[in-house]
């Protein structure tokens, strides 16, 4: 059965998780298949709009959520990066405490390991994809590959463009991919986080992620968060979308 974008949204409204996942043998995504070294959650991490919130070098570094004492402007190669040490420390903590396996899913690719991490004092994290495999350029397909490899494993995907990256997959008009995406979003094991581009990860989002990694976030809350991601209006800009989602985090965390 071919599921349209609207039918996926409609099915998301049913909070009873009864989807049978299709295995990835039918997905047009080439090898190598991601090899999960442990059963701990995997966190797929972007950089720009997530860790880096630099937008204007003409203005002093500022963030409405984090104190100025935690903000740093760094030069990484030819790029200026504005970031918060609290965010970096939390990401490192998740990895060091074995709460999550962190993987880079970013257009920085190896530069995240060789250029960015040493300057920001991030630990070394493996890549989520082979950057030389042209078939893995679409991030949404990479996330689906990770999910289908082990649908029972918790997965966090953090990218300020999540809604639009999901639509890249839907726009391929492949029924199998649509069913797999619906399965992923409704499984209760996948949490999608789309920070506001101009601010990156904030306190509430870090808290939501940590609750999920520790197994303290209800399936209903995970399901609701992913439904918000899917139902973002077509006309809504990325900054407006971030503000729209932000208003719901406190409700999700208290569920």
Walkthrough of the structure:
The structure is a single chain. The protein contains ten helices and seven strands. By secondary structure, the protein is α/β, with parallel strands linked by helices. It has a single domain, classed as Rossmann fold (3-Layer(aba) Sandwich), CATH 3.40.50. The two termini are 34 Å apart. The N terminus is likely disordered.
Number of E strands: 7
Q: Structural class from helices and strands?
A: alpha/beta
Could you tell me the CATH topology label: Rossmann fold
Q: How many helices?
A: 10
Q: How many domains, in number, for the residues?
A: 1
CATH domain class name:
Alpha Beta
Write down the secondary-structure element order: HEEEHEHEHEHHEHHHH
The coarse overall form would be globular
Beta-strand content: 5-15%
Distance between the termini: 34 Å
Spatially, the strands of the biggest sheet line up as 5-4-1-6-7
Descriptive labels:
Rossmann fold, 5-stranded parallel β-sheet, 255 residues, 39% helix, 12% strand, single chain, disordered N terminus, alpha/beta, globular
Helices and strands in order, then pairings?
Elements lengths: L4 H8 L29 E4 L25 E6 L2 E6 H12 L4 E4 L5 H11 L5 E2 L11 H11 L5 E4 L3 H9 L4 H12 L3 E4 L9 H11 L5 H12 L7 H9 L2 H5 L2
Parallel strand pairs: 1-4, 1-6, 4-5, 6-7
Antiparallel strand pairs: 2-3
